[in-house]
């Protein structure tokens, strides 16, 4: 029970990696706020969690909307009284080659993946400062570190997540708040299901572990960084990518 009595907000927890993280955190004893744009999906996750005795609530949030994020934080405090962990997991893609990328596709990815992380982190900081303790984990991507064909917008946001993480690690490390990022490789979720098969084959061929990742591979990294085991880890970008590039 590595997260006993801790309260965790996980954004984008209605599906994919976030959903797996909600189950993982619940099994480790956390109160989990399953926050997602898709409330129905979040409610389904909570119903499944409660079946094995977990303590979770579903909350609708649009991370790109500051007032919606504020409501999510208020609901969390009202329900559980504290916020020990924030996992900034919600994210989207809108891939296109640079010459075809519309300003709308650029903006919507920036709004969710970059501004969303800013809004959520800013909103939980006062409570974590009051507690003199907290763990913030944000999801980057190998695309943000090495770049990727067709991902100008996405790569920019995921590189930005690492920059924000390191800045906040410096701002808040001295106040008991650890801020880290996880850098997943290609993980089998709906997001990757949209990638053409020939591109995925190319990816598989350059991964030394010779497989794509699964959501549990990332959920376990979130768990480590959220737990007291990572009390001396701050400002890191933890790659969980099968060694796709080194
Ligand atoms: N690596 C190398 N080459 C790639 C590539 C990649 N990742 N993606 C596309 N290409 C190549 C294509 O093979 C093609 O080459 P040829 O002209 O020699 O045939 C060329 O780029 C143009 O590709 P398309 O003909 O497919 O062009 P399009 O305009 O129809 O589509 C695209 C462009 C939308 C970028 C499409 O190719 C695509 O979806 N590519 C995959 C992008 C990708 O990897 N997204 C990752 C999503 S998952 C994710 O984001 C999670 C994460 O964090 C890693
Ligand atoms: P997914 O598409 O399976 O799930 C994303 C979830 O986020 C969905 O439930 C969706 O409703 C929610 N969401 C989308 N926009 C939202 C918003 N504005 N507000 C609140 N919730 C919103 O995606 P996946 O694969 O689970 O990705 C999770 C995170 O991991 C994302 O940040 C993604 O960029 C990142 N990532 C994923 C990789 C992969 O290969 N799947 C690789 C590297 C990073």
Spatial strand arrangement across the major sheet: 3-2-1-4-5-6-7
* Count of domain modules: 1
CATH architecture: 3-Layer(aba) Sandwich
Question: What's the average pLDDT?
Answer: 97
CATH class: Alpha Beta
DSSP, total strands: 7
Could you walk me through the main structural features you see in this protein, from its secondary elements to its overall organization?
With 246 residues, the protein is of the alpha/beta class. The protein has one domain (7-185, 215-240): Rossmann fold (3-Layer(aba) Sandwich). Helices cover 49% and strands 16% of the residues. The protein binds acetoacetyl-coenzyme A and 1,4-dihydronicotinamide adenine dinucleotide (NAI). The site of 1,4-dihydronicotinamide adenine dinucleotide has 30 residues, from α1, α4 and α7.
